[in-house]
Design brief:
With about 290 residues, the protein is mainly alpha-helical. It has one domain (about 15-220). About 70% of the residues lie in helices and about 0% in strands.
């Protein structure tokens, strides 16, 4: 029973890792840059959801939609306002700029909302699953359910729409895709829109699950998302999902061992070291 219950915890945690890492993978797959500010978008979604539930309505679904829309638009703004003008520079330039944006976003949240934690008092009716072997709370079931819905929707967009085909073409060769008539700028903007919306959804889901929102909640997420992207393979969305679940499993089961005294959040670094040593291309990707 304890094993299955731990598996439930890992599935919930892995779902959040997968959602935040997918957007990072989507951006890297096309632009080949590490979008560190993506973690700031994660926090933005949580704060927009917080504003909705504290000033407008306690309805979780309204907060989720508002947070995803705001996060998606913020992602497009970062692309059009910053990355668009530095894409032809060395890869280190967008990386440094992205780190700067992330730091500025954290400071903005601290100045506007204060340095303290805020409760996330959203209300939602969702079933409770009780079996002889494990229990899934309504919040846990919500995260698992929405992650599955988002992944199915993303699969449909990638494989059944013109936008998805444009993304695949751009990921192969951005210049060639533009030469054959693919609207590259619009495709990249939509890529940021969807990836950032998923990050915002992850932020709201974890804020609701843990009942807390604070300015630096994206700090740990930033490096864990990077670990997931490296583990899954740069540019591989399937790899990001698998790697997110794998990291969550390792953290959950190693962290539950009494003799394992290593900090739980540092397990990701250990996993990253092993991946870089033995399989630097990740599970499914290519550099």
């Amino acid at each position: 029973m304890e094993f299955l219950q731990q598996l439930v915890f890992a599935l919930v945690l892995g779902s959040s890792y997968a959602l935040i890492a997918i957007g990072l993978t989507m951006v890297y797959g096309i632009l080949k840059i590490l979008h560190v500010a993506h973690a700031g978008i994660y926090t933005l979604g949580a704060y927009v959801g917080l504003l909705v539930v504290t000033h407008l309505t306690y309805n979780f679904w309204v907060a989720l939609i508002a947070g995803m829309v705001a996060s998606g638009l913020a992602g497009v703004l970062i692309y059009r306002g910053v990355y668009y003008y530095i894409l032809r520079r060395s890869r280190i330039v967008p990386l440094i700029v992205s780190i700067g944006i992330f730091a500025a976003m954290n400071e903005f949240y601290r100045l506007v909302f204060g340095p303290y934690q805020h409760a996330f008092p959203a209300k939602l009716k969702f079933p409770l699953v009780i079996t002889p072997y494990f229990v899934i709370t309504p919040k846990q079931l919500l995260i698992i359910f929405l992650t599955a819905v988002f992944l199915l929707a993303l699969y449909f967009v990638f494989n059944r729409t013109k936008v998805g085909l444009a993304w695949q073409a751009c990921s192969q060769d951005l210049a060639m895709a533009g030469a054959v008539g693919v609207p590259v700028d619009r495709a990249v903007a939509l890529n940021f829109l969807l990836g950032s919306a998923l990050a915002g959804a992850a932020g709201i889901l974890m804020a609701f699950y843990r009942n807390e929102v604070y300015p630096t909640m994206g700090n740990v997420v930033a490096y864990k998302a990077f670990v997931v992207v490296v583990l899954g393979g740069f540019g591989s969305i399937r790899g990001s999902v698998v790697a997110g679940l794998l990291l969550a499993l390792v953290e959950t089961f190693l962290g539950s061992l009494e003799w394992f005294e290593f900090p739980r959040d540092a397990i990701a670094f250990l996993l990253l070291i092993f991946v870089l040593m033995f399989r630097p291309k990740g599970l499914f990707g290519r550099l």
